[in-house]
Amino acid sequence: MSTPEPKKHIIFVCWGNICRSPMAERVAQKMADDRGLTEFVFSSAATSRDEIGHAIDPRAQRALRAKGYKTDGHRAHQITADEIGDAYLVVGMEQLHLDIMKRNFAPDTDNLVLITDYDARAVRGSGIEDPWWGGEDGFPVALRKIERGVSGLLDAEGQT
Predict the structure, then answer these.
(1) Domain spans of the chain, in order of start
(2) Helix, strand or coil for residue 47?
(3) Where in the sequence numbering do the catalytic residues fall?
(4) Which terminal residue of the chain, N or C, has fewer Cβ atoms less than 10 Å from its own Cβ?
(5) What topology is assigned to 8-158 in CATH?
(6) Residues 6+ apart with CB under 8 A from 141
(7) Strands (E), 1-123
(8) What is the DSSP letter of 37?
(9) Residue 130 above 60 pLDDT?
(10) What pTM value is reported for the model?
């Protein structure tokens, strides 16, 4: 009897783990399910400790639910060096998140990537701005950018 291949863990990371990264986690899970991609497991985390224990921001929840994504079962937590080391990929929402992880958690890692580098419509290195600082209308915009980035990431992974 053969042992199953371990799943490839992809972690999405933003500042507080209440807006962009849990949105990306839910988008990735649904897109992977819809594509029949079973080799991945997804999670999300924060670079900061600001929102530890909090649920997804209500504005992000509304944007997710409006497009049929799940919003339950989330509590924000800060990324750890072990999580980064064990992950297949760690996907930052902005270059700042990659820089913080490299500096504070995993200086020798090579599995950090930026979500917008998988979005053909985005300027390379641009990242996805934090909708938390604005009004309700920023969340659907961020979600659309996340969907494009996640789709491109899954496309790229499907080719390897």
Answers:
(1) 8-158
(2) coil
(3) 14, 20, 130
(4) N
(5) Rossmann fold (3.40.50)
(6) 131
(7) 8-14, 40-46, 89-92, 112-114
(8) -
(9) yes
(10) 0.96
